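User: Please fill in residues for this 221-position structure.
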């Protein structure tokens, strides 16, 4: 992974757009183009292999009393797992649907620790049963693109993928100038194919499975 500063992205975008000595696109506007292009690349990575953008550390919190909801971080795009601390160990929670919410209002449906569930309502994590949601939780999530505003701020990407950002920002510059963007569009398309192919499976040593059925079976016993 290489840290690339906003200053470097500005320079590269101007070079691609042949605007190194031009003030036609100001710094503030160029920063807007760069951040828009960075957000686009982020969406590509999230779609192809979301763990490039997943928080490396767990976020922990405690619900107490009658609390059953927790606000998600402002940079949360989507969750990658929620766990509950129960009898000395962390256990993964399953999600419930709003169509099933009435089940947890009826005590006859409840049994054991498996009754606890979560869902996302707007910008909050919400848990059921609502009247007994107290406890310790943790979660990981996919982070949104961090807007770059300072010249020294950096983004960390592998294998020169930041080139996608500078090329796309250059396209936006050329479009404002109403100049031909064909060559840059072709370069962007080639970069996109390369990134999508490389990002699809980050752990090349392991074949990807949703769940290991043998592991689940062994845990069940």
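Assistant: Residues filled in for all 221 positions:
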């Amino acid at each position: 992974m290489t840290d690339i500063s906003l200053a470097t992205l500005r320079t590269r975008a101007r070079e691609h757009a042949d605007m190194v000595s031009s003030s036609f696109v100001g710094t503030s506007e160029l920063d807007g183009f760069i951040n828009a292009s960075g957000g686009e690349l982020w969406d590509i990575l999230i779609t192809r292999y979301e763990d490039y953008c997943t928080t490396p550390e767990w976020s922990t919190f405690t619900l107490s009393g009658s609390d059953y909801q927790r606000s998600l971080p402002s940079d949360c795009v989507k969750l990658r797992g929620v766990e509950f601390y129960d009898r000395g160990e962390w256990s993964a929670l399953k999600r419930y649907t709003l169509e099933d919410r009435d089940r947890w209002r009826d005590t006859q449906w409840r049994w054991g620790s498996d009754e606890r569930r979560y869902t996302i309502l707007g910008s909050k994590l919400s848990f059921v049963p609502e009247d007994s949601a107290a406890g310790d939780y943790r979660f990981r999530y996919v982070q949104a693109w961090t807007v770059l505003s300072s010249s020294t701020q950096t983004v960390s990407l592998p294998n020169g993928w930041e080139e996608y950002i500078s090329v796309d920002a250059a396209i936006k510059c050329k479009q404002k100038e109403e100049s031909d963007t064909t060559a840059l569009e072709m370069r962007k398309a080639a970069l996109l194919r390369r990134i999508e192919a490389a990002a699809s499976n980050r752990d090349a040593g392991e074949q990807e499975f949703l769940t290991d059925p043998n592991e689940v079976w062994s845990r069940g016993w």
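For context: The first strand starts at residue 2 and ends at 5.
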